[in-house]
UniProtKB/TrEMBL annotation, chain A:
Ig-like SoxY domain span: 48-155
InterPro entries named in the record: SoxY, SoxY_para_1, SoxY_sf, Sulphur_oxidation_SoxY
Name of the protein in question: Sulfur oxidation protein SoxY
Top-level lineage group: Bacteria
Pfam families: SoxY
TrEMBL record, chain B:
NCBIfam families per the UniProt record, alphabetical: SoxZ_true
Highest taxon, organism lineage: Bacteria
Species for this entry: Mesorhizobium prunaredense
InterPro entries, per the entry: Ig-like_fold, Ig_E-set, SoxZ, SoxZ_dom
The name this protein goes by in its record: Sulphur oxidation protein SoxZ
Pfam families named in the record: SoxZ (PF08770)
SUPFAM superfamilies assigned to the protein according to its UniProt record, in alphabetical order: E set domains (SSF81296)
Domain Sulphur oxidation protein SoxZ: 10-101
Coiled coil: none
Length: 160, 106
């Protein structure tokens, strides 16, 4: 007797199961890569702190509340610290809520910095919250958050 | 690799906190943009920036695709002794670009 190979396959998997698998595969292809992979803002901060408690204060994040061009947003982070050998800021990290990747930058400072202050320019894909976390030399973490409304988003502009 | 620009005060007092500005010409391609042929443009970013003062590491930064093109970083340092301040940028391919500036401390 001659059996159709496709029928054997369908009989093995079952039609509904086969359809469901196809739909899942299609969904996975149609979604952009980052839409499934990105950790949330809180998860990213937890990875940075190693699970330690993050307190509010001692850090100031300057972010313009209304951003015209999300491709270059000037930010400044200032932490309150005497920046001495015993008491200084070890790291300052910046995280975002809705970009394809949660990390923005991590700055490594020390007593020779003199002042716990960094500024840079970042990309914002959409209106969202930005968080700055500072790690002190005693192992404590302090944070500050600010939100911005973005009118021209980064990452989606046409290439022509 | 690219053109780098640094701004360090020429003269400073002993113990003074000076502001340092560093910028490098680089597209910081995120890897999330779609090119004209419909496929993703490969990621190409500056991954690390480091600053040494007379050979001693004093400041560094890990950068991610969310940093704008032509990354600009401003930070501060304590002027301790006269000497050179060196800057190094490292990209995804491991290529580095350096710049340096001299400072005179009175």
């Amino acid at each position: 007797m001659h059996e159709d190979p496709l029928r054997i396959y369908a009989g093995l998997v079952g039609r509904r199961q086969f359809l469901r698998a196809g739909m899942t595969a299609l969904l996975a292809i149609s979604l952009p890569r980052w839409a499934v992979a990105r950790p949330s803002l809180e998860e990213a901060i937890r990875t940075f702190t190693g699970g330690a408690n993050v307190l509010d204060g001692r850090v100031r994040l300057d972010l313009p509340p209304l951003v015209e061009n999300g491709n270059a947003v000037g930010i400044a982070v200032v932490a309150e610290s005497p920046m001495t050998e015993d008491d200084h800021v070890r790291r300052i990290a910046v995280f975002n809520e809705k970009n394809p990747e949660a990390n923005v930058a991590v700055f490594h400072l020390g007593p020779r910095s003199g002042r716990a202050m960094v500024s840079t320019r970042i990309r914002l894909a959409t209106s969202q919250v930005v968080v700055a976390v500072a790690e002190m030399s005693d192992g404590s973490f302090w944070s500050s958050r600010a939100s911005a409304i973005v009118t021209l988003a980064a990452c989606i502009e046409d290439l022509s | 690799m690219a053109r780098a620009l640094v701004n360090v005060p020429k003269v400073a007092q002993q113990g003074e906190v000076v502001e340092i500005k560093a910028m490098i010409a680089h597209p910081m391609e995120t890897g999330y943009r779609i090119g004209p042929n419909g496929s993703n443009i490969p990621r190409d970013i500056i991954r690390r920036f480091a600053c040494t003062y007379n050979g001693e590491a004093v400041f560094s930064a890990d950068l991610f695709p969310a940093v704008s093109a032509n990354p600009f970083i401003a930070f501060s340092l304590v002027a301790t002794t006269s000497g050179t301040i060196d800057f190094t940028w490292t990209d995804d391919a491991g290529k580095t670009q350096t710049a340096s500036a001299t400072i005179t401390v009175n």
